[in-house]
Amino acid sequence: ISPGGGIFPRTVKSIALTPEVRAMLDVTATEMAPNDLLHAILKAPADLLYNGGIGTYIKASTETHAQVGDRANDGLRVNGAELRCKVVAEGGNLGCTQLGRIEYAQHGGRINTDAIDNSAGVDCSDHEVNIKILL
């Protein structure tokens, strides 16, 4: 874990931000609610934003949260134009809506479709299933 960083439960009321975290996220707040912190992390300046899980975290500014259809992540989701990372890589499925992906790319970001980024994982899973069938 980077200096000033930590692991925090999402159930706490607020998380104190160290000077290192405030500088990394480019925020002035000294504490944030967990969802607000995750929202800030998604919008932080970075070389790479890697989505390796389940959930749609990036949409287009023209889309509503209801149109995305992932209510569990409404409080975290950001618009493609708000991303300040250079590249988005997706190890999971549907991390971005198609319009969110386009909006991010139109603002200078580099992004593939999720099928390209996670194709090796799908291939590996396919081999695993075939081996289990064989055995």
Regions with pLDDT < 50 over 5+ consecutive residues?
Answer: none
Mean pLDDT: 91
Strand order of the largest sheet: 3-6-7
Instruction: Categorize the overall geometry.
Output: globular
**N/C terminus separation:** 40 Å
Biggest β-sheet, characterized?
A: 3 strands, parallel
Number of H- or I-type helical stretches: 6
Domain module tally: 2
The helix/strand class is alpha/beta
Instruction: Provide the helix percentage.
Output: 25-40%
Q: What oligomeric state is this?
A: single chain
Radius of gyration: 17 Å
Strand content: 15-25%
- Tell how many strands the DSSP assignment holds: 7
Q: What is the string of SSEs from the N terminus onward?
A: EHEHEEHEEHEHH
Describe this entry's structure for a reader:
- With 135 residues, the protein is an alpha/beta fold.
- The chain folds into 2 domains: 1-44, no CATH class; 45-134, no CATH class.
- Helices cover 36% and strands 16% of the residues.
- It has 6 helices and 7 strands.
- The chain has helices at residues 19-25, 34-42, 65-68, 98-106, 114-117, 119-134, and strands at 15-16, 31-32, 46-51, 58-59, 78-79, 85-90, 110-111.
- The strands form 3 sheets. A 3-stranded parallel beta sheet has the order 3-6-7. A two-stranded antiparallel sheet has the order 1-2. It has a two-stranded parallel sheet with strand order 4-5.
- Strand 4 (58-59), helix 3 (65-68) and strand 5 form a beta-alpha-beta unit.
- It is globular.
- The model has no long low-confidence stretch (mean pLDDT 91).
- Residues 1-135 form the NAD-glutamate dehydrogenase catalytic domain.
- GO terms for molecular function: glutamate dehydrogenase (NAD+) activity; L-aspartate:2-oxoglutarate aminotransferase activity.
- This is NAD-glutamate dehydrogenase catalytic domain-containing protein.
- Pfam families: Bac_GDH_CD (PF05088).
- It comes from Streptomyces alkaliphilus.
